[in-house]
């Protein structure tokens, strides 16, 4: 396929792997933030092609994985209310709560619908004026503009039966939390190309300067990822931090200004809990006061729901790069895609799911 095959070229992959081996004189630990990048690395065997002194660890960039347990339980509580339609992206339906997931809730009679866009959920609200329609609005900066657009459009049209259960998070505060952790192993980052397509790379520059680390926005194909890893290795070997863009065909420094404008109009920054990690200050987005009437958490009074995680699940350590999925004692035994303890085992971008699917495990 044009514009795809060249980024999967085996000869170019081999040259990049060889060049990484030549440049990497020392041992380095690099984190790819994005779960989509993790799956591409596993699927294409890039982790097995790299020299042994390059250790890839997997970050908290899977939006499903970091959606806190209380959001899932609140969604389940809202879905159980008569007259409510809960709309969600499909990958959220298998995320485990304490006792069930949204698929189970649907099998028990809840009106839970899979949509491909928050604007589709808004259309369901238009079509069902006698129902309350709640969209489960999760994700990083990638999904925030569309989620903001749905709320803004609902406000403009006066669609009063639409609301969002918001669990939006942002990448730079997570990077700061990882780098500030006493057990941090990460020395450089591959930043998520789709997030950077929205936000640009300006927001990473203060992080790179403060911690002296290289941050390289990268894409998702094998050549994209290896080119990003090579750039991180070169910067590490030269002892310099900063931001270097390896995804120039998609990412610019300023990002998508209109998307950022809409996002900032509807949302404001707030502290936010991350599943398995805890609260990261100023890492999330919440609806501004002008749009508070579209906040499903307030509308249905579910903010008090605060369940406890399974003590067996160590996904938080995986998401911070402290642990590889296969190092978790529950991996593949108590925790599998059929009986998941955490979202990292069921999400299409989850690191544990990638290790399970692509056999990076010792069972």
Automatic annotation (TrEMBL):
Record-level GO BP terms: protein maturation
Pfam families noted in UniProt: HypD
Record has Iron as a keyword: yes
Keywords: Iron, Metal-binding
Alphabetized GO MF terms: 4 iron, 4 sulfur cluster binding; carbon monoxide binding; iron ion binding
Superkingdom in the source lineage: Bacteria
Residues passing through the membrane, by range: none
This protein's name: Hydrogenase formation protein HupD
